[in-house]
TrEMBL record, chain A:
The chain crosses the membrane at residues 44-64, 76-95, 136-154, 160-188, 219-238, 250-269. InterPro entries: ABC-2_transporter-like (IPR010390). The keyword Transmembrane helix applies. This is ABC transporter permease. It comes from the Bacteria. The keyword Transmembrane helix applies.
UniProtKB/TrEMBL annotation, chain B:
It comes from the Bacteria. This is ABC transporter permease. Keywords: Membrane, Transmembrane, Transmembrane helix. The keyword Acetylation does not apply. The keyword Kinase does not apply. The chain crosses the membrane at residues 31-52, 59-78, 142-163, 175-197, 233-252. PANTHER family: INTEGRAL MEMBRANE PROTEIN, SLR1174 PROTEIN-RELATED. InterPro entries: ABC-2_transporter-like (IPR010390).
Length: 281, 265
């Protein structure tokens, strides 16, 4: 450790060099995706529609019922919007960690470890999906529409919360992504396992948690912290009392929850990478 | 026919070796089962216990059977063929004595058989343990469900095969897969029963797209929604789609073979 600190202090030029390395990885990705134009165009259109479909699914449910878990359509849309924005920001930044299981299964992870860049950052930059930018934009559009429909009475605090909530929501999702993909250090074929918490978490946060019940709600809302991504911030923005009787302070606790989750994820990642044994194929 | 059986057996055995993946997949389907079940029950609760012709317990069965069926019909991505086209390995498929569509279909049916015994059973059992599930009232619904599921696998295979064949022209089929997944999720009845939609949209989806035939048809047959005549029509719709898609696969396969340039080597 002391050795590492020493090197960092004495070679300040080391850092720009590393940055250039990441930049080249990203640029190569962009070029390669633009090679197959027809496929890229379809991918773009598909992703444009993807978020719209999520919203459409919520609207369809409200064709059958006037309220869902005590919330009206604009209120649920606001929750979905916050959830989608958090998730798409996270997906843009670290969603590619999903491919880690292929790296481990094929043995390509060995190559990642031999390069003088952080393994986690390399995986993240391995496939920057431009299309994911589109999803962030759509989530913002949905959020703006929902805010208009819900007739929010703006205060400075609520405006700040509107920025804080998705940012730290993204951190929480990112932690789940990193922690979840670490599982493949132990169980190589288990990639789908983490989907239950990453994509499952996204779908969970898209609805008010009053919809769920029992241990399932406790585990996802509080155990994994998903209630703090969209549900509690939305309550404060809507100025709506919590049907579950929680204090207003909970609406502001997403930074604490997200940073704690990030700490846990970093810890799990370290254990995992130390445990890594090449498949050797 | 013997070859086809052998291929189906191989498909079954191939997937039975991926034990971790099977457990992980069943776990994920089960978690999503809880999620979807709670949401749909919340809808039914405020809609007076009945939503679009489904009672609460029917919706519970709808969700959990659906979570089990997902893996059986393999509604999400399958790129085995596209990968072989990209690498050029597909040429050895063309040398085999069995037609490629038939041989891939046989393998896929074997895979579906394995999924039916593993991935289908877990969510269904968990759902039955944790929620009040609707059981079919007439015995005939069980064999009808089995038949309908079999046809659903063929329909889903047909679309997946066509999607993969586009690799002959595009090489990179990421975009086509995205579009297929988009349809497979929302238009098949996975996110919500299609009966939640206005009548005209249901008509367009059932008659104009193969998605409901690959997913919702067997579920509606098992939860006995609508009259017996209505359910027979669903099965008929499925059969039409299966025939149409397998025909299309044969046709496109022939065009693709003329286009084939072996990339590998």
């Amino acid at each position: 450790m002391a050795d590492l600190l020493w090197r960092r202090a004495t070679t300040p030029t080391g850092r720009p060099g590393a940055l250039a390395g990441y930049r080249q990885l990203l640029a190569a990705q962009v070029r390669s995706q633009l090679q197959y134009r027809a496929s890229f165009a379809m991918d773009l259109v598909g992703n444009l529609l993807l978020t719209l479909m999520d919203v459409a699914a919520v609207v369809v449910l409200f064709r059958v019922t006037p309220v869902l878990g005590g919330f009206t359509l604009p209120e649920v849309l606001l929750i979905s919007g916050l959830a989608n924005l958090s998730f798409s920001l996270c997906d843009l930044a670290v969603g590619n960690i999903d491919t880690m299981r292929q790296y481990i299964r094929t043995g390509r992870f060995d190559a990642v470890l031999t390069r003088p860049l952080s393994a986690l950052l390399q995986l993240v930059c391995g496939d920057l999906a431009l299309r994911r930018l589109g999803r962030v934009t759509q989530a913002v559009v949905v959020l703006v529409i929902a805010l208009n429909l819900a007739h929010v009475r703006w205060t400075p605090a609520r405006a700040v919360l509107l920025v804080v909530a998705p940012s730290f929501g993204a951190v929480l999702f990112g932690s789940v992504f990193v922690a979840g993909s670490t599982v493949s250090f132990w169980f190589i074929e288990s990639g789908e396992f983490s989907n239950a918490f990453t994509y499952g978490g996204r779908d969970f946060t898209a609805y008010p948690i009053t919809v769920y019940a029992g241990w399932f709600r406790k585990a996802f809302a509080y155990g994994l912290g998903f209630a703090f991504v969209a549900y509690y911030p939305a309550l404060a923005i809507l100025d709506k009392p919590d049907p579950l009787g929680g204090p207003r302070l909970l609406s502001w606790s997403s930074p604490v929850v997200a940073l704690a989750a990030a700490g846990v994820a970093a810890f799990i990642w370290r254990i995992g990478i130390r445990h890594y044994r090449s498949t050797g194929s | 026919m013997g070859t086809a059986w052998a291929l189906a057996g191989a498909g079954f055995r191939r997937y039975s070796t991926y034990r971790q993946a099977t457990v992980a997949g069943a776990f994920t389907n089960t978690v999503f089962g809880f999620l979807r079940c709670y949401v749909i029950l919340a809808v039914a609760a405020t809609a007076g216990g009945m939503a679009a012709g489904y009672r609460g317990s029917q919706l519970v069965t709808y969700v959990w059977i659906g979570q089990g069926l997902l893996a059986v019909v393999q509604i999400w991505g399958w790129t085995d063929l596209a990968d072989r086209i990209r690498t050029g390995d597909v040429q050895s498929d063309l040398l085999r004595p069995l037609h490629p569509v038939a041989s891939y279909l046989a393998t896929d049916l074997g895979r579906a058989g394995h999924a039916a015994l593993t991935r289908f059973v877990v969510p269904t059992a968990v759902g039955a343990l944790c929620f009040d599930m609707y059981a079919p009232h007439t015995l005939l619904s069980y064999p009808a469900f089995l038949a309908s599921t079999l046809v659903a696998v063929v329909v889903s295979f047909g679309v997946r095969y066509l999607v993969n064949l586009t690799a002959f022209w595009l090489l990179d089929i990421r975009g086509v897969i995205t579009l297929w997944q988009l349809g497979a999720g929302v238009l098949s009845g996975l996110y919500f029963p299609l009966a939640f939609l206005p009548g005209w949209a249901q008509g367009v989806l059932w008659l104009g797209t193969p998605f409901p035939a690959a997913f919702q048809a067997p579920i509606d047959i098992l939860v006995e929604r609508g009259s017996v005549g209505h359910r027979s029509l669903l099965l008929f719709d499925q059969l039409c789609w299966a025939a149409l898609l397998i025909g299309a696969c044969m046709l496109v396969q022939r065009r693709a073979e003329r286009k084939l340039v072996v990339q590998g080597g």
